[in-house]
Amino acid sequence: MAFLTLRDFQAARKHIEPHVHRTPTIGSETLSRMTGFDVVLKAELLQKAGSYKVRGPLNVLANMSEEAKARGLITSSAGNHAQGVARAARIHGVPAVVVMSKAAKPAKIEATRDYGAEVVIHGEVWDDAYARSLEIMKERNLTYVHPFDDPQLIAGQGLVGLEMIEDVPDLDVVVVPIGGGGLIAGCAMAIKAIKPDVRIIGVEAKQSPAMRRSLDAGQVTPLDSFGPMIDGLVVKRVGDYTFDVVREFVDDVVLVDEERIFETVILIMERLKLVPEAAAAAPVAAILDGLIEAAPGTKVGCILSGGNLDLSALKGMAWN
Q1: Residue 316: is its pLDDT beyond 80?
Q2: Where is the Tryptophan synthase beta chain-like PALP domain (predicted)?
């Protein structure tokens, strides 16, 4: 297994940096007081297209052959990866097809179309959309962009962690949400390439522990069932490459109750004046629930991975 090195992340940065924000890492007195840690937040929810997901596809496209790009792209996504691929494809002038499950939020579907991608709706969960995207890939001879299990994509996603450790060199612990594992794989390798003793902790939704189950089994093990559809946290099966990286570089994976994740979304909005989606709130929920074992005053970083929250429930509430 060939893991990524600091050189891989630095190469990816050259392709990605001109097209993205360097999102800030900010301290939180509120969360520090509530947890006893010295808490900082990587505000990737302020990223273009609303999440870190734009970073990886930019690196994939920069390394893709002209022949592969000319055929057009296809991917599958519950939302954020869809927007990331669509935006990256528009930047590179490449047509893109995105297969999204019925669980995808209308706002994310519309945003993906606004970036110029063709959207196909299929299946109940991401894994259904993934299967259909492979069929369309063969039917139309398109080039596939995997949402998490691709080292070039992971090199792009890992810039989130690289920027964080550069901005806060004295970090002791970094807490990262896990879906398919691309973000935590990239962040773990990037951060530990600079500071090997930083503890990397992954967070999954309690009813959808695809990575935790695989780690416990010693091999990639699909889920038989899963909980509420939380974009960015719920997949039936993690990636083969991401599993190997997590097993090698991640110190622990903890499980957070879904209700606590949703409550934490509201807390962050109320107290921190930021608008995270549920996956982004999961690391904060983990530290609030005492799932991260560390001494008081430990410098703990949480990655707020995205802010594409479906606000449709708020429509019509004004003036009530």
Answers
A1: no
A2: 16-306
The active-site residue out of 51, 77, 214, 305 is 305
Continuous H helices in 18-103:
29-35, 55-62, 66-71, 80-92
Q: What is the dihedral of CA 163, 21, 27, 203, to 10 degrees?
A: -70
53 is catalytic: yes
Domains of the chain and any CATH numbers: 6-52+151-309 (3.40.50.1100), 53-144 (3.40.50.1100)
Average pLDDT on 225-231 reads: 81
Mean pLDDT of 280-297: 97
Say whether 305 is catalytic: yes
**How many Cβ atoms are within 10 Å of 2's Cβ, its own excluded?**
8
Catalytic residue among 28, 51, 53, 108: 53
Nearest to 79 by CA among 58, 55, 99: 99
The reported pLDDT for the residue numbered 1 is: 65
pLDDT in tens, 249-281: 999 999 999 999 999 999 999 999 999 999 999
